[in-house]
Structures are given as C-alpha cells and as structure tokens.
Amino acid sequence: MPRNPARQKLSGLQGRLHRLTVVLCHAQNYEHFMNIGKCLAKTLVIPPTSPILMSGQQGKKMSDRKPMTQAEARGVRYARELEGHLNWLDTFSGTALGVLAVASGIYTYLGVSSLLDDNGAMSAFAAIAYSVAVSVGIFVFWSYMLRLFPAVRTTRARVGLLGTMGLGSLAIVAMSSWLNAAALAGSAAVEQHLAKTVQEYQGSLERAHEIALSAQGLERDVARVRQSFEDLSEQEATGNLSGLAGRGAVFRVLRQKSAELSGLEAQIATQTPLVNAAFVEGNQILSRMRALTVEPGPVEARSVEFSEQAVRLAGLIAQLRQLSVASLVERAAQDLSASVVLPELDGNSVENRTAQGATITSVLEVLAQRATTLERAAQSVLAMTPPSETTYTPISSADAVILYARNFVPSWAGAIAIDLLPAVLVFILAITQTAIRSGREGAAVEDMMTLAELRAALSAVRDVEDAMHGGIPDAQPTQEKKLDTAAQITPIKST
Length: 495
Description:
Number of helices: 15
Distance between the termini: 54 Å
Oligomer: single chain
CATH class of the largest domain: Mainly Alpha
Radius of gyration: 49 Å
Shape: rod-shaped
Order of helices and strands: HHHHHHHHHHHHHHH
Strand content: under 5%
Number of strands: 0
C-alpha cells in the first residue's frame, strides 16, 4: 500500500528537525535554541511564520546587539576552556567513582565479616550482600551529587543539597567507614586491647602482692609484742615485777598472751611462701600474655588463649588477696586484751595477793597498749587501696578500632577518605561550573558558537527550509546562490 506523500514529507521534516536539535546540543534550553534560530534567520530565507522562529519573535534582533567587549570575549574563551577540561574529566570520572565504591565495598566486606558469627556460607553471603549494597549506595549517592549540586544555581537549592550531602556522608561513615577502618587496623586494635589488658592485670597483680607483703610485715609487729610479753614473764619469774619470784598468777597471764601471739606469728610465717609462689606464677602468666599480643598469626586464635591465661591470672590475684593476714592480725589484737583469763591469786599472804593483783592490772594496761598498737598496724594495711577488679572481655576488631580510635588516626583517615573523597570532586565541579557561568555572563549564544558549529547549524536549517518549501536541496549550488548566501551571513567575531 503506497504511503501518503504528506506523511512522508512530515516524517522527513521531523528527522531534519531532530538533526538540528542534535547539532545544537550545546544550547541547554529552549530559549537558547530560539536565539540561535534568530541568528540564522538573517542567513537563510525562512518565513517569519516558521515554527522554528514563532516563539522567538519577541527576542532582540541581531542588528540591535552590541559587539562583545574584550572582557566578554576573554570570559567566553575561559568558559570554553573549562568546558573542554570538564568534558575530558567526564570520560573517566564514572570509572574512578566506581573504583572507589568497589574498594570501599571490599574493605566493608572484610570489616563486616569480623562481626558475623561463623555460620559457613550464610555468613559469607550476608557479608557479600551488605558490602554490595554499600558499594551501590555510595556510587548512586555520589553520582547524584556530582550531577545535581554543580547544576543548581539558587542559594536555597544549594543549601538543601549541601544538607543532604552532609546527611548522606554521616550515613556512609556509619555503615561503611568504620568497617573500612576495622579492615585496615582491626587486628592492630585488638592487639592494643590485649596489651592494655596485660597492663591492667599487671597493675592488679603488683598491688595485690604489695598488700600481701605489707600484711606479712605485721609478723614483725606481732613478734615484738610477743617478745615483750616473754621478757615480762621472765622478769616476773625472777620477782622483778610483783616482788614474788616464781611462776605465779602474773607469770601465767604473760605466758598465755605470749603463746597466743606466738601461734599468730607462726600462722603468718606459713603464708609467706604461698604469697611468693603466687606472685612468681602470676608473673609467668603475664609473660605469656605479653607474648600472645605480639605473636604472628590470626589475632582471633591468640585471643582465645589470652582469655584462658587471663582467667588463671584473675584467680591468682584473688588468691593473693585472700593470703593477706591483716584482718587476722586485727582480730587477734582485739582479742588480746578482751579475752584474758585471770588466774587465781596464789600469794600466801594478803600483801602478796594484793601485789599480784596490782601487777596483773599493770600487765593488762600494757597488754591493752600493745593490742592497740598492733590493731592500728593491721588497720593501716587494711586501709590500703585494693587492686582494681580486672576482667578481660573479648572484643571484635570493629569494636576495638572504635575503642582505640585515637591510636589509629591514619587508618581512620584513609577509611573515611575512600568513602568521602567524591565530596571534594563535587565542590570542584561546583566551583568550575560557577566559573563557566561567570565567563559566559553577558555573551549571546551566537557569540559562543564556533565556526564548525555554525556551519553545521546552517546546513541543518537549510535542510529544514527545503523540506518546508517542498524543494530538493541542490547538490552543487550555483555561484550566484553562493554569493547571495555569503552576503546574508553575519560575520563571526573571533573569540
């Protein structure tokens, strides 16, 4: 079935109009397109009622335009130079952004793997899914920013996009950057945690040993009090206290307290080897724990053994605290004067019994004084600051890199830079686009066209004109037509 000639002509006209639109692609809106059409109207014979020019009848005529100044010409050249650079940069900007997104996704995968329980293929699939989602999100987000932020012109729109970019950057840091940092410095952060734990355990062990040694030092105080009572008993045996020689009531009281203190002294002495052995064993465990912090190999396996050694060391520290005899000495000092069994006065006369009673009273006073001194010595040991409660808590690499962030500033900087570096590119593009618009300020569209663009536009408009009049463009125009066309072309200013 033959096609309608009018439909064929209309189809050809549409194709030529589309060609004209493509040729004039640098005209970013309809107004510029109309200005170019008005510029070419003086070159080609196009009816005033042509659809190309109908909407531009209100525009300024070419003859009314003022010639460009040198400043405007320099601005146009400057804008075109910047556009050339941007066109070259656009050829690999998307690839560069994709590489950054993929790199962030890889490090995110390594970081999130340390947080998930080892459940085989499911854990690996979950980590891959999360990292892919992060990579796609980062790529799409910065693609939006690279295109939209430099294009907007109003302050309100830029502030809105700037706030959106800030919110998106926070989201990227929350879901990706800290995992990147965990992948970069996670093992080192866990080792830092182990080293800090060793220091804490060492401080607790040394403090518990110091308190235990101070309590063992009370043995000398007990020995002095015991020796003083033994000396008094010897004096009583010779009659130097009550005046009655022999081993009577006063002698028995002194020997009673001396025996109590002797038993306490022996008990304290038995604790000394235990304290020393516990301290030596604790130092051995600490040495092994220090070795685990710097040994090669996966830090997870070392953390397991470190945890076992930490439990043993905590038990030794608790044992040292129990070996302290300060509380025992305090109770013995309190009982020293409170629990005195007074013997029956055995003097053969009233004067002798009176002398014995007076001597026993004096002995009890001395006993109270010695007990008070011994009790204060024990209380000074008990008042010492106890060792801190230290407990090793296993920690993941992601948590460790946050806990010890100050020690890994370069790793954090690199992790954040991978995700937020496109923000710098966004601002560079925004500044460049602003400079391009400033360079084109005051210049007409036709003044910004190159000779090649103008020749292509002339050819396209000539095709449209011929199609509208139903004519066929000549393959070789006559010399007269060439001269007539040349007379109608407006000279192009050099830019």
